[in-house]
Every structure is written in structure tokens, then in C-alpha cells.
Design brief:
Length: 253
């Protein structure tokens, strides 16, 4: 268990209509309570951010977007800017999720643009990185995540780098029910922390939170969170039910 305050983030992906999102957020406010031992973040769909923001306004739950466009405004049909996310109450925004890298062909460079644009607006980026099954089996896990991390961090000052949260999400573990073992996740997290120390400095490496994502659920969260370099979880499937999200948030009790 690390000394950094744990962060449990629920990524709702493309699930829940407006009514469902509002009703679910109300239940989560109850389930999370007023003084959770962890930072709690939820990432509803873009069209429900505003309504969910109002539901969680007086609770400790913080709001995240699932995506953003790096430009401040203009002819980018279908897109949403960092300032728009800020205006509806987003503290965080997820960038570089493997589903966006895969289905929308987002590059490391474009993800970096998004993260820089978010920071300029005061929204905290949660940058996702992770290797495919092929890469893992080909022994390329470390070179892959190293390249992704470098693209996210290179050239940032310590102060800027500290605004990032990094989510290590092995693609083969997302939505598959196949979780990385705590030892497999810790091995990569430890490597990432060393890389942050090299790319920025040791103090930044000690303070940046590294989340694990990929089939996190109540039955495996405790073992994962016991690892020194795992500071939280980015959760898809298990964040969509009140009961499992409650157990994840209260994993220490
Ligand atoms: P999962 O998704 O928990 O359903 O595996 C995690 C993620 O994609 O962030």
C-alpha cells in the first residue's frame, strides 16, 4: 500500500442514458458517503456530465470526462473542448484510453495535445497507457509503456507533471475478466515510477498516482491495492453497479 491517497475512478464508457445516469449518481452519493478514505471519481458520458455534476455537487465524488478535443473552439464537429468540460464541473478527464487508441486511431502525440490542453484549462488529465496481448507475449510490455509514458511526460516541468494521473491498463485485461496479477501490475507500476524519476525527478515520481485498470472488481481490489506502487484503480464494468462500486471505494473497510 502506497502513501499516496488512493483514487478509485469509475469509467462508465458508453453506458446509461440521462435518467439512468442521474438516478445512478444519486445512489452513488449515498453509497460513497461524506468522508470516503479514497478520492472518488466518476466518468459519465459527455451528454450527462452536466446533470451528474449537479447530483454530486455537495458530495466528495469528483467528475471526469472520458475524452476531450485539444482545440479551444472551432470547426470540430462532434467534439468538446477542455473549457467546456471545466464549465460543467469536470475536475478530471481521461485521455488515451485504449478503446480510443484502437477504435479512433488516437496517437501518442494527439493524446499529449489533449493532456496539455486540459492542463492549460485546469482540468487534470488521467492518461491511459498499456500493452496489447501480442506485445506482452512478444516481450514488449516495458518498451511499449515506456514509449507511451515518455510521450505523455517529456519536456514537462515537475509542477506540470504532477497534474497527471497515469492509468496502466493492459489491453488484454480490459473487459475480459482477465486481471493482471498484483505482481504483474506492480512490476509495471514500479517500472513506470522509475521512468518518471528519470524523465522528470524523484519527487514527482513519488507523488504521481499510478492507477491500475483492467477487470478490477471487489474480489481483487484489495490484493492489487496492497502493492507499493498501485495507488488506485480505473474501473469499467464493476463501476456500473452501485454495490460493486461501493465495495471498491470502501476496499479498506
Ligand atoms: P474494465 O474496464 O474494468 O471493464 O476491464 C477498465 C477500463 O477500460 O478502464
Amino acid at each position: 500500500m502506497s502513501q499516496r491517497r488512493p483514487l478509485i475512478a469509475g469509467n462508465w464508457k458508453m453506458n446509461k442514458t440521462l435518467d439512468e445516469s442521474v438516478a445512478f449518481a444519486k445512489e452513488l452519493v449515498e453509497a460513497v458517503g461524506s468522508t470516503p478514505d479514497v478520492d472518488v471519481v466518476i466518468a459519465p458520458t459527455t451528454v450527462t456530465l452536466h446533470a451528474v455534476s449537479q447530483v454530486i455537487a455537495d458530495s466528495p465524488i469528483q467528475l471526469s470526462a472520458q475524452n476531450v478535443h485539444p482545440q479551444p473552439s472551432g470547426a470540430y464537429t462532434g467534439e468538446v473542448s477542455p473549457a467546456m468540460l471545466k464549465a460543467v464541473g469536470c475536475t478530471y478527464a481521461i485521455v488515451g484510453h485504449s478503446e480510443r487508441r484502437q477504435y479512433f486511431e488516437e496517437s501518442d502525440a494527439f493524446i499529449r495535445e489533449k493532456s496539455d490542453a486540459l492542463r492549460a484549462e485546469g482540468v487534470l488529465p488521467i492518461v491511459c497507457i498499456g500493452e496489447s496481448l501480442e506485445e506482452r507475449e512478444g516481450g514488449q510490455t516495458f518498451s511499449r509503456v515506456e514509449a507511451q509514458l515518455k510521450a505523455a511526460l517529456e519536456g514537462l516541468s515537475a509542477e506540470e507533471a504532477k497534474t497527471l494521473t497515469i492509468a496502466y491498463e493492459p489491453i488484454w485485461a480490459i473487459g475480459t475478466g482477465k486481471t493482471a496479477t498484483p505482481a504483474q501490475a506492480q512490476e509495471v507500476h514500479h517500472f513506470l515510477r522509475q521512468q518518471i524519476a528519470t524523465l522528470v525527478d524523484q519527487d514527482t515520481a513519488n507523488s504521481v498516482r499510478l492507477l491500475y485498470g483492467g477487470s478490477v472488481k471487489p474480489s481483487n481490489v484489495v490484493a492489487l491495492m496492497q502493492e507499493d506502487d498501485i495507488d488506485g484503480a480505473l474501473v469499467g464494468g464493476a463501476s456500473l453497479k452501485v454495490d460493486s462500486f461501493r465495495q471498491l471505494v470502501h476496499f479498506q473497510s
